[in-house]
Every structure is written in structure tokens, then in C-alpha cells.
Design a protein that fits this description.
Length: about 70
């Protein structure tokens, strides 16, 4: 299986381009990335929900494949 879901923090500013964020790639461009899906955000509120549902499991930022976080 090919996946690009595993993300790591960039450590600084990253340019948003028409098709994706610099340094970010998508495995299946038919459903991810591209002109209308370059950025994927996931609400921190949802992380709180999953922490309750999955106690003891580490849930680092990007766990759900999102490629943008604002702290």
C-alpha cells in the first residue's frame, strides 16, 4: 500500500502552492491534494474526542493525515 498519511512537523513556515504545501505529497491525487484539496485541516476538538475514545494511545498532530496546524 502506498500512503502519505504519516506527517512530521516542518519546523518553520511552509509555502502553500496551488496544488499542495511545499514538501507535502499525496499518494492518491484522485481524492487528495490538487487545486481544491491542497490543505487538509482537522479540528483540535476532534482530537479531544479521540483521546477519550482511544485512551492510552498517542495522538500526535497530523495523526489523521492533516497537513496544516495552527498553534
Amino acid at each position: 500500500m502506498t500512503t502519505a498519511i504519516f506527517k512530521e512537523p516542518a519546523g518553520g513556515r511552509v509555502a502553500l502552492r496551488k496544488l499542495n504545501l511545499d514538501g507535502d505529497r499525496q499518494a492518491d491525487l484522485t481524492v487528495h491534494g490538487g487545486e481544491h484539496k491542497a490543505v487538509y485541516c482537522y479540528s483540535l476538538v476532534h482530537y479531544d474526542y479521540w483521546k477519550k475514545e482511544l485512551p492510552g494511545r498517542e495522538l500526535p498532530m497530523g495523526m489523521f493525515g492533516e497537513n496544516y496546524h495552527r498553534r
